[in-house]
Amino acid sequence: MNTPRPLGRVEAGQDVEVSFTVNGTPVTMKVPARVTLSDALRDRLGLTGTHVGCEHGVCGMCTILVDGDAARACLLFACQVDGADIVTVEGLGRPDEMHPLQEAFGRHHGLQCGFCTPGFLMSSYDLLSHEPDVRREDLPEQLSGVICRCTGYRGIVDAVDDVARAHPDGIPAPGNCAARTLVGRGGGGSNATPTDAAPVEDELRAVPREITLPSGEPTIDVTVDSELTSSPEEVARVLADIPLLARCLPGAELTEDLGDGWYRGRAKVALGPIRLAFNGVAQVVEHSDDRIVLVAQGEDTGGGGAQARIELVVEPHGTGSRMRADARVFLVGRIAGFGRSLAGDVSRRMFEQFARAVDQTAAGAEPPAQVEPPGAARLLAGSIADRFRRLLTRGRAALARRRAG
Ligand code: FES
Ligand code: FES
Question: Is the pLDDT of residue 24 over 50?
Answer without folding.
Answer: yes
